[in-house]
Each structure stands twice: as C-alpha cells, then as structure tokens.
Amino acid sequence: MLAPSTPSAAPASAFPPASYPIGTPGQPWGPAEVAQWRARQVRQRSYAQDVLAVVDTLRERFDVRSYGEVAYGDDRYALQSIRPRQWAAGRPTVLVTGGVHGYETSGVLGALRFVQEHGERYAERVNWLVAPCVSPWGWERIQRWNHDAIDPNRSFRPGTTVQEPAALLALIAPLQGQFAAHIDLHETTDTDESEYRPAVAARDGKAFVPGTIPDGFYLVDDTENPQPAFQKAVLEAVAKVTHIALPDEKNELIGSPMTEPGVIRYELTAWGLCGSATGARYTTTTEVYPDSARTTPEECIAAQVAAVCAVLDFVLGQQAG
C-alpha cells in the first residue's frame, strides 16, 4: 500500500532509476496525460473467470449479493459481497476487503480462500462480510489505480465520487456502528517502486525519490486509534505461515517508523484509506511481499487467510472476555 512520496525499506539499487514516459517533469497531468496512461493499460486477466466464477461456487453455502457495478465505458463489473446465511443481531460484525488495489493478487484470492475454507467455521459466531475484489478494473489490468488514474485507497471519504470506494461505502452504510473489526488485504510489490511510485510522482508533477520495499509481511495500524495487542495477535498467527518484515537501519518500514515489531501506523481517515471506512475499534491493513525469494504465491494467500482468521478469533476472544 505505500506511504505517499516517502522512501520505503530492500535496497534502492534493486530498482532502475525512474523516468516515467508520460507527462512533463514538474507539471501535473491533465486529461491528455491521463488518456495516454489509460491507453497503456492492457487487460491481462479476467475478473469474471478469476473472481465471479469462484463467487458463484459459494452461492449454495453463503449469502452472495451484488452491491453495485463499476462501469467505465463498455467495461462493466458486477461487485459482489459474501456473508453467512446465519447473520444475526448480537454477534460481532467484521468486514474483510480485498482488491482495493486491483493488482494486489493475494488480497483478492485470500479473501475468497477464507470464505471457501473457513467461512462456515465462523458463520454461527461472527457476522463476517467479505468484499473480495473492490477494484475489478484494476484486477484485470494488474493496476493500482482505477480507470481515471485515481488511487481508490486514497478515496474513502464521505461523498466520494470515485466508483470503487463509493460502492463499498454504500454497502456498509446500513451496518455503521455495528463493526467490531475490519481487515483490508494488501500487498507491497517490487512494482510499487519500479512503476507505481514513479507514476504517482509524474501524475502529481513531483520529483520521484527512490525508496525500498520491506521483505516480508507487516501490518498498518491507525495512528488515531492504535491497537497494539490486536496487531500482535494477527502477526503471531501470520508468523506461523510466512516471515515478518524486519525494519531498515532507521527502524522503519517503507518510510514509516516501526511502532511494534512488524507494525507501522498511518492516519487512516486523513489519507482516505479503506481501513477508515467502518469506524471499527479494531482495524488492520495487511501487507505481504510476493516478490520475496523467501515466499511463494500460495504462501502469500495462506498468510492473508491466517490474518483474517486471527482477526475473527481476536474479536471472539474479546467478546468472551
């Protein structure tokens, strides 16, 4: 998920010097540059095949609902949510989101895997709600931004006109005040440094400052509502599956101070991050590094699933206590 315009944490020399091929250095993009950028985006995978087909297999066991549509020209994507049929008042409610950044593969597949393998185990104890792929246009093009070169994960604000966050906010609006927790599933990839941060700098007319990428799994807590015990519980579960990122020589991860092992904090509401959407007491954003030589795509998915289960277990433990 990247802190905006701040250096991160594996050597900057691992990435080539960035010079983005669109725009004039020092000048923010206008409509022509956005159109030029959009023309470079190629559909590389299928939302219908990768996401909707999997969701269809879950309909017999769970309550699957459409919560809107993302439409860009002739491209139309039905947004799907999944929840238990046993939804009941008095149980803790937990939101699980994946694919807010469409290119972050294990977040989408991890959200779906959780439902497939563990959804029934929690169905009579937790009102879990899963939105597995918030940004389907980005999923198909393996792209961080949406069709309009906007980062959906800087757009979760009241009254937003950005389609992806607006649809999710409408989905959860009837449940506001009920959420105990929200886990938002993300990745930090080498392309964050080689493509997306240079693109952000070019789009905004700013200089690109090379940074680094943490090797391993880490979490993002909320500066305004830190919950260290909650973050620790999630990391302890994930550490059984994959390695946790270590800080750099400044005791930072991706340009932010590490507040506890494997944890940094962002101002979720001020930045318009998805993690601020529910106002839940317990929120976390996962970040796994799929390009690490020490992991595999399957391990990254398993780590996301472990994190979701840990969140639900923690919430249930708090309720029992």
Give a brief outline of the structure.
The chain has one domain: Zn peptidases (Aminopeptidase, 3-Layer(aba) Sandwich). The protein is 34% helix and 18% strand.
Kindly report the spatial arrangement of strands forming the biggest sheet: 4-3-5-10-6-9
Number of strands: 10
Integer count of domains: 1
Order of helices and strands: HHEEEHEHHEHEHEEEHEH
Say what the CATH topology is: Aminopeptidase
Tell me which oligomeric state these chains represent.
Answer: single chain
Give the biggest beta sheet. Answer: 6 strands, mixed
The CATH superfamily bears the name Zn peptidases
Distance from N terminus to C terminus (CA atoms, Å) equals 33 Å
Helix content: 25-40%
The structure class reads: alpha/beta
Level-1 CATH class name: Alpha Beta
SSE arrangement:
Elements: H1 31-39, H2 47-57, E1 63-72, E2 75-83, E3 93-98, H3 105-122, E4 127-131, H4 136-141, H5 163-172, E5 179-187, H6 190-204, E6 218-222, H7 228-238, E7 252-253, E8 256-257, E9 263-266, H8 268-271, E10 282-288, H9 297-320
Parallel strand pairs: 3-4, 3-5, 5-10, 6-9
Antiparallel strand pairs: 1-2, 6-10, 7-8
Helix pairs in contact: 3-9, 7-9
